[in-house]
């Protein structure tokens, strides 16, 4: 089983570049990237889950409704630093999508307890931790498959059992496709599933210096990323891997 997830919010630029763009322009990058993704996912008949930031959803309701109409999964991406706005944020996303929200992914610096999640009727947490490169060089002991703690199902992003590389958005962008596919295969063989994540903006040509991306983040963006991901979806189908939304697979 291959579980594809996407983190959806307005494209983020460094503070010193923010005056160059309106919120609508930054939203449009993620909107167009998502529309491209929806087309290739639909054509390949592959399922996925979209974690959506509530204020982005509020500004772009038609995109959210399109995701729902096409029967992709919807979950909550919470980007605030504390939980003060969590309940209201979840409510906004539910109102825009017309769906009850059961899953969440939040920023590593946000201190969210299992009780906080249970109070708001979440049942799973698919948050992830950014990793320093030095951690790839030593044994990583974090959990890499699902586990239950205090009645909440936690879904860590998968990690290759051989290389110990996590399946981050950048690993797909940077690694050769055949190598990445090999990592996916060995992970499915060991864990029975692979949980992956990406950002829709990666499928847009945002390499201009105005966007302020680090040089290594510009590698394989836009059309190259779109083609690479299309080939990955083709590989999934050719090898008869099943796909599902997180809620479908775990519940």
Ordered list of secondary-structure elements with their pairings:
Layout: E1 2-8, H1 23-44, E2 49-52, H2 54-59, H3 61-69, E3 73-78, H4 86-97, E4 103-106, H5 114-119, E5 124-125, E6 147-149, E7 152-154, H6 169-174, H7 177-191, E8 194-198, H8 223-238, H9 246-250
Parallel strand pairs: 1-2, 1-8, 2-3, 3-4, 4-5, 5-7
Antiparallel strand pairs: 6-7
Helix pairs in contact: 1-8
Q: How would you sum up this structure, described in words?
A:
With 251 residues, the chain is α/β, with parallel strands linked by helices. The protein has one domain (2-250): TIM Barrel, CATH 3.20.20. It contains nine helices and eight strands. It has helices spanning 23-44, 54-59, 61-69, 86-97, 114-119, 169-174, 177-191, 223-238, 246-250; strands spanning 2-8, 49-52, 73-78, 103-106, 124-125, 147-149, 152-154, 194-198. An eight-stranded mixed β-sheet has the order 6-7-5-4-3-2-1-8. Helix 4 (86-97) links the parallel strand 3 (73-78) and strand 4 (103-106). Helix 1 (23-44) packs parallel to helix 8 (223-238). The longest helix has 22 residues, at 23-44. The radius of gyration is 17 Å and the shape is globular. The model is unreliable at 131-139 (pLDDT under 50). This is Polysaccharide deacetylase family protein. It comes from Elizabethkingia miricola (Chryseobacterium miricola). Residues 27-105 form the NodB homology domain.
